[in-house]
Amino acid sequence: MTDTKPTKPIPVSILTGFLGAGKTTLLNYILKQQHKYKFAVIINEVGKIGVDGQLVETQKEEVVEMSNGCLCCTVRKDLVKGVQNLLKKGGFDYLLIETTGIAEPGPIAQTFLNIPQLQQLVRMDSIITVVDSEQILKQLKETETAREQITMADFILLNKTDLVDEAALAKAEAAVRELNSQATLFRTNQSQANLSELLDMHAFDVDQKLSVDPKFLDELSQRHHHEINSISFEFEKPFSIEALELFVQEMSDREKIYRSKGFLWIKDNPRRAVFHGVNNRFTLMWDKLWEKGQARSSQLVFIGKQLQEDRLRAELEKCVVR
Question: Which domain holds residue 311?
Answer without folding.
Answer: 228-317
